[in-house]
Q: What sequence folds into this?
C-alpha cells in the first residue's frame, strides 16, 4: 500500500514553474515504503538535505565519500617521415614544427650499387653516370628532423 505524503504549494519562483530550488514533485515515495502496481520497486525522488523540512518530506542522509576516477594514459607515438611534424623538442622543451633536410643513407648507396651493377651490361649508361642518380633524388635519401629553435636533431627517418 502506497502512502502519499502531502506537499504544500511552494513559494513563487521567478524561473520555470517546474524547476528551481523550491520545486518538489507531488507524489514522493520513500524507498522503504511498499509500492503500488503502477510504480517500480524502489522508486523515489532524491531529496536534498534541507529541502524536506517545510514540506513534510524526510531528508535523506548522504555519505561523504570521495570517488577517484583514473583515466588510462594514452601514449602518443610520433611518426617522423618525410613531412615536418609538430612536436616538443627534447632539448629546449619548445613546441615546434620540425625542420627537415635530406642526407645520404644506406638506401641511397644500395640504389647506386644496383644501378652500377646493371650499368656494366649497358656501358653507355655506366659512362653517363646513371648510378649517381640516387644521390640527386630526395626520395632515396634519409630525412633528418631538427628543431628550428635550437638546431638540434630530434629524429631521423631511415629509408632502410
A:
Amino acid at each position: 500500500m502506497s502512502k502519499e505524503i502531502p506537499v504544500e504549494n511552494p513559494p513563487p519562483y521567478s524561473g520555470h514553474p517546474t524547476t528551481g530550488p523550491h520545486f518538489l514533485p507531488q507524489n514522493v515515495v520513500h524507498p522503504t515504503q511498499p509500492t503500488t502496481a503502477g510504480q517500480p520497486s524502489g522508486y523515489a525522488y532524491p531529496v536534498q538535505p534541507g529541502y524536506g523540512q517545510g514540506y513534510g518530506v524526510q531528508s535523506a542522509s548522504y555519505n561523504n565519500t570521495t570517488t577517484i576516477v583514473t583515466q588510462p594514459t594514452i601514449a602518443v607515438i610520433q611518426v617522423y617521415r618525410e613531412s615536418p611534424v609538430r612536436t616538443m623538442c627534447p632539448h629546449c622543451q619548445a613546441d615546434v614544427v620540425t625542420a627537415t633536410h635530406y642526407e645520404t643513407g644506406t638506401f641511397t648507396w644500395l640504389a647506386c650499387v644496383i644501378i652500377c651493377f646493371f650499368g656494366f651490361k649497358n656501358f653507355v649508361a655506366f659512362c653517363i653516370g646513371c648510378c649517381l642518380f640516387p644521390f640527386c633524388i630526395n626520395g632515396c635519401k634519409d630525412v633528418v628532423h631538427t628543431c628550428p629553435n635550437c638546431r638540434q636533431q630530434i629524429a631521423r627517418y631511415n629509408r632502410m
In short: Residues 71 and 77 are 18 Å apart (CA to CA). The beta strands are 86-88, 95-97, 99-103, 142-146, 153-157. The two ends are 80 Å apart (CA to CA). Residues 86-157 form one domain.
